[in-house]
Prior knowledge:
The structure is a homodimer.
Chain A: H1 5-22, H2 39-51, E1 56-57, H3 82-93, E2 104-110, H4 115-120, E3 131-138, E4 141-148, E5 153-159, H5 170-181, H6 184-192, E6 200-203, E7 219-226, E8 241-246, E9 251-257, E10 290-292, E11 300-302, E12 306-309, E13 312-319, E14 323-332, E15 339-354, E16 366-368, H7 369-372, E17 393-400, E18 406-429, E19 437-454, E20 457-466, E21 471-479, E22 483-485, E23 504-506, E24 509-511, E25 514-524, E26 532-542, E27 552-560, E28 577-587, E29 593-600, H8 613-617, E30 625-629, H9 651-654, E31 674-684, E32 694-706, E33 727-729
Helix pairs in contact in A: 1-2
InterPro entries (chains A, B): Cu_Am_Ox_Cu-bd, Cu_amine_oxidase, Cu_amine_oxidase_C, Cu_amine_oxidase_C_sf, Cu_amine_oxidase_N-reg, Cu_amine_oxidase_N2, Cu_amine_oxidase_N3
Active site (chains A, B): 369, 457
Domain Copper amine oxidase catalytic (chains A, B): 290-714
Amino acid sequence: MKTPPLLRLTFILFLIILLFTCSWYSLNLPVFSDPPKSITSWLGNSKSRVCAHLGSVLETGIHKPRDHMEDVPHHPLDPLTMQEIYKARTILSTYPPLLPSFPAIHSLSLEEPHKDLVLKWKEGDPLPPRKALVIALLNGQSHVLSVDLDSGLVTSNKINHGSGYPMLTMNDISVAIQVALSHKELNKSTIKRGISLSDLTCITPSAGWFGPNEEGRRIIKVQCFSNQGTPNFYMRPLEGLTMTVDIDKKEVVKFTDTGGGIPVPKGTDTDYRFKAQKEPPKMKPINPISIEQPLGPSFTVEDGHIVKWANWEFHLKADQRAGIVISRAMVSDSETGVPRSVMYKGFSSELFVPYMDPDENWYFKSYMDAGEFGMGVTALSLVPLNDCPRHSYYMDGIFVSWDGKPYVQPSIICVFERYAGDSSWRHSEIPVNGFNIREARPKVSLVARMAASVGNYDYIFDWEFQTDGLIHVAVSLSGMLMVKGTPHQTADQIPNQEAASGPLISENLIGVVHDHFITFHLDMDIDDTNNTFVKVNLVKEETLPGQSPRISYLKAKRNTAKTEDDARIKLKLYEPSEFHVINPSRRSRLGNPAGYKIVPGGNAASLLDHLDPPQLRSAFTNNQIWVTPYNRNEQWAGGLFTYQSKGDDTLAAWSKRGLAFMASRNRAIENKDIVLWYTLGFHHIPCQEDFPIMPTVSSSFELKPVNFFESNPILKAAPMFEKDLPVCRPATSS
Amino acid sequence: MKTPPLLRLTFILFLIILLFTCSWYSLNLPVFSDPPKSITSWLGNSKSRVCAHLGSVLETGIHKPRDHMEDVPHHPLDPLTMQEIYKARTILSTYPPLLPSFPAIHSLSLEEPHKDLVLKWKEGDPLPPRKALVIALLNGQSHVLSVDLDSGLVTSNKINHGSGYPMLTMNDISVAIQVALSHKELNKSTIKRGISLSDLTCITPSAGWFGPNEEGRRIIKVQCFSNQGTPNFYMRPLEGLTMTVDIDKKEVVKFTDTGGGIPVPKGTDTDYRFKAQKEPPKMKPINPISIEQPLGPSFTVEDGHIVKWANWEFHLKADQRAGIVISRAMVSDSETGVPRSVMYKGFSSELFVPYMDPDENWYFKSYMDAGEFGMGVTALSLVPLNDCPRHSYYMDGIFVSWDGKPYVQPSIICVFERYAGDSSWRHSEIPVNGFNIREARPKVSLVARMAASVGNYDYIFDWEFQTDGLIHVAVSLSGMLMVKGTPHQTADQIPNQEAASGPLISENLIGVVHDHFITFHLDMDIDDTNNTFVKVNLVKEETLPGQSPRISYLKAKRNTAKTEDDARIKLKLYEPSEFHVINPSRRSRLGNPAGYKIVPGGNAASLLDHLDPPQLRSAFTNNQIWVTPYNRNEQWAGGLFTYQSKGDDTLAAWSKRGLAFMASRNRAIENKDIVLWYTLGFHHIPCQEDFPIMPTVSSSFELKPVNFFESNPILKAAPMFEKDLPVCRPATSS
């Protein structure tokens, strides 16, 4: 039974090396003197056979990998190209304060030009100076560097003196796992559970911040799972086993094993891969179905990033931290056809995911996924036909690995036209009125999508643009639950079910209750930057005696938010409001100010104690809506340095409400360039249906024109006619 | 300029006759000795040319009209066939208490068999006795009659002694309009406004109930609009002009004209018909796009009403009052494939639409559309390709006109498979964990849809069934606003904008603020009828000192509702719960009870004073959720006799909360056959984009399995493969 420990360790190390060379693109980029034309094809050529046995990529379509080495920027907001990244790296590598050892690059991306430069820029103009914003760690210090690519100079180098560390790199994660796997106590714990070290897969929950105990050093947690017999190791936790690793010192600073007696769940039927399914589901099969556009899609993507469709135009890119970013969204005026500004920039600024278990092995699970791991860096290639429909356009991400070199994350955004069989408006007229009318118009929209796989969880972000001017922003959750091992096989074995941190979702597995909060940064610029936030409150009025047979009615009362305090909103069903961002100086012909309103859909609020460390750090979820004056340094609701931060650089801190003992900023927001922040929340009490992989759950909000157009902008839209629709036949294989 | 009044009146009467013979099918059915094979084709042959100039039906496809004369019932819940309706009429016409004059038939539809009979029935069994439930008005009395079609006997005849009258008939509406149009004072009012009587189109807002003033007689309001130059007469109100008509006495009992000085709006650019558009909208055209299924849809409709698709099976029908009705919804068990009951019956029981203006001409506008007008009776044929996608199946409604004769409302329900490019689950695995996985599954669902045009407003009802067991119920609003004339052309002319009952949405037009509340009757039968309602409250817990670095966490606490009081729910963002209907005796292998939860989406609550007459009658909107024990007489949240009712037979009355001076029923609901009621609300503050026709606005809720399945029921679902998808080419015309 027993293999000598040394042999086993050698095997593990081999495995680790194999894993990392086969996998994360950034980890195995050679030092190019002549960079390859396509990273994907390079990977494909050299590694595919070695890696094949390790996983399975659903092959339902092939994209042509694009060559990005010749990319040049066309727009002030275009992400850094591969050549620009190499250039920035070269500049950094000769910058004296960083010598002699090259720092770990935690972020290297476009330093967006000042807004006024971007707004002034017109197609054909020379680009504003191209700059890289670099976050680097050197000797335990976080540097924020500004690199001017034109002059070749580092123009700014600031060291972070606040709390927190930069976003983790893949190297941090792999170091942490290697350190943990090499820890001598681990072997005893795995043997105790009957698991072989070689069957371990370990993950790296962020440590959070919980007081002075772990301050002053970069700490991460490592927890392990058995992957024996299943790639869905998430369902096979080695419960109770947590290693706290000092990433920089490369040592386990705390080893906890409280899991005695909790078996590793068997993992039966947890493999969700198609190739592992032995029989079809017990339901009638569904015939092939597809959104078809034989004349092709109606949108164009110009210069790599400018999407134009129907009456919309916007800049689209993938950012390593934010994921999908929509910029300069403009919609054509329905009267003149002239593009009008709606939103300068929209993206998910932070994701807060607190788990509801105070246990030693669980309390720290209060992820801030964007700032800790990155929503772009964890977005992998979308699966054609299954993540996105036929006729989708796929966009790559150009990201930077910890050694400062660029890599291509292929096909992480898709753009497609959606037609779901719905109507954008309709009316039929009962002939009793003298008009026998039946009119309806199909609803076709444009979707830009990205899916981030932050470890176990998948977040699908959809930005959907409608011809009536509405932007529908949806987040869909799928992937795997974060589960907790339990000695119990059935619910009635659990002595006090209410004491468990969630329901039993499979034998020996508790689905721990948790929340998800996605905070969007919505820099609305309605027509221009001079905007105002108006709450339109619906208030019950009582009639006067004798005035009317009615006793009550509602009245819409407009309240202009003068300062940030006026715009901190907790949604209340029984105190309803509309929330408008208007341009007070742009009036319709009737005199109504042009505006957009944010329309919440289903939502959930954080109920944690405001002084609880995770909530302190994520105090930006204390309201569903905030409005701040535009400040280019206020992009990240959870702070620029989120990892292990105390919450001293967050939306809630910038916009601090006045208390007796602290200075209140409560900045003016009327007639200003303002940013709207909206938090979309989910409570998740798991159930058996979430095992072993969760059916998608969605929620959304809308940005909707209010007196922005003079009238319904799609009044003149044409219906669909049979004669125009595609002629289709079954596939040859059917 | 002036035509002699008599000549004009003759013309008007001719017009009225023309309108009614051309239009409402029920009004011009001849007395058949040999009924026609198809009402639609009959209408088409005899009237189409006469009617052509009166309106325009968007011709984007043709359905084959179905012959319903040979229809026979196959299922206990199948609606009455045409022959059964004729038979019921014959039985009624010889029933002595109704002699000699045949009553006005306000409703004649299947009296659904007792639930136990339906549940016991199996395919192949003889049907339980077929009965008609008839609501008829005779000499001012409302009769509820039960007609046994087998024995040919009227087995029950009850007279309504409570408040309220039956649903209006088309005859009531046309009588009211004729009476109003013939009223001598009308001419003066129209001339004053520069409008010709021949250009009037009048509508019949229900009168509501506002105390003893209008009690004891059937009263309706009539208001008129100018249709000159536009079929969108709704945008041309003769503001301030209201006639109160006694429907049975055929007289105007009150004539109000308070509209002096309010011009009739010009109606410029209000014609929304495609043929009236002179130019395309100012946007890039959208290429043809379609949901294609060259092997056809995957669902079947058996015996006219049983829909089977993937793992779902349900009975589908159109009801004259409720509109679309889903019965006996069953989903296959994912382990055994055996169908399991989810919902016995689901439909929209009432729609409450209060307008927010206490003015003499507006206070009464507090519609209860289902009980006053009927959601089925106002559902007209859906427009192929524009209301529903290609490959839709269309279902007709067989309804009964006021003379007791059947008529066909063709194609008022469509059924189709939806694929919108989304995924039903997905996960990709960062290769750092040793597995390079990208798996996703397309989401295909089945939609059953109906669109009711209750005068100006259109309500689209979607029941969407997903393979993961989820039912998504959506209501989408479109059509025309109910607008109020104003002397003002621009907002700055309005002396006190806040005093107006809504924003200016076009010259001389106020979009009056209003609400919509759609109350669903959801008779959940999870596995069988023995069900329990459980609130799973998420409650903040504090940790003990030293217990954990965390201060707080959430705990899911299950609370079983013993009685109706426990299940009256007002949704609160900061007091969140899940709402489960479970079968306590059906346990998963882990011991969790099988259940479904109702998942609210965006919602709005009624804020009217509880003593305000409209709110008294619609007190069922005082909570978003109610649970009642099943009672076959409790189908209509607004009461069986809604019209002019006082609210004495509503959900709120049946389930009355205990007060000192009134008997509380507060019935037991634990381990019972229970019905869940959910109200979906919208606040609507209009804006210019809603003019002249509103872009669709949607909201929804979900019924979602919770430990109903042993695990994710679509784990084994296949992905889409390119080789299976249709091969399409552009249409010849493109």
